[in-house]
What we know:
7-stranded parallel beta sheet; 14 strands
Amino acid sequence: MKILVLGGAGYIGSHTVYSLIEQGSEVVVFDNFETGHIEAVHPEAKLYKGDLRNRAEIDEVLDKEKNIDAVIHFAANSLVGESMIKPLKYYDNNLCGTKVLLESLVEHGIKNIVFSSTAATYGEPLHTPILEDDPTNPTNCYGETKKAMERMFYWTEIAYGLKYVSLRYFNACGAHISGKIGEAHNPETHLIPIILQAANGTRDHISIFGTDYNTPDGTCIRDYIHVTDLAQAHILAVKYLLDGGKSDIFNLGNGVGFSVKEVIETARKVTGKEIKAIEEARRAGDPAVLIASSDKAKKILGWKPEYDDLSTIIKTAWKWHSTHPDGYATK
Ligand code: UDP
């Protein structure tokens, strides 16, 4: 297969590129390097630097790269907290970028796309675990833009026949088994990397955002899913579309929830470090509990997460964070 990966220098994008190449695909990466890292791009991938909001830059790739079987779209801003402070940045990159992309894909006759969506499309869930046809009422602007992206794909298919799979990730975490690539956001806001930065000494402590949620220990519960398992789901989704599957939406999670305090405790065991934790106020926009039902992805895509144990997931992340305390060299 020849796959164009948009945002292939980012966290989930770079892991998906590794998995695609490991499994024999030809990969073209397009990234604006606003949040991605050049060192995260697999050396065998063909790389284009460009921004989706610039029609000429994506057109150039699609003009030059013939016979692309499918596109995987990760190119977006994805920080819940930032989206509450800078909502228009999220509308601009996530929605304007996707609109330009879709115009170009339609014009170039691309027929299949898999893209990242998020559990944040649901907002406060009505029940646990969350199913794909549950109501979507995002509590933050990031989730709102991803929900709007899904609708953009829905109407684009009706008009132009571009088929899509939307993958709603729960909490992506962990790192490539080799330790060569891993999670490195700047600034880092995600729980597991921050805990491991407190363990590797690049940060003093982890702040626990809210201890008064309606959960057994008062801290938020999330469904943590390994990035390589997410990568595999994208590959299966591409194959599903190429085999004639219809456009659809799938949750991706392990179906098990861990509280912030449980994650910290597991990280203490895995790393053997003390890891100082300080209890603080809630962060805006955080639902109390998010746990996926991924039965649909398992049944229809044949997806089977391999890293279904939190200690193993944190071990892979620790391999990365303990050897790359400052993340990638360039940022
Ligand atoms: N969290 C925390 N301290 C941090 C970062 C995150 O307590 O420094 C909490 C956050 O409030 C949420 C959970 O950890 O309940 C997971 O947050 P993350 O940002 O990793 O992912 P999200 O669920 O927002 O996608």
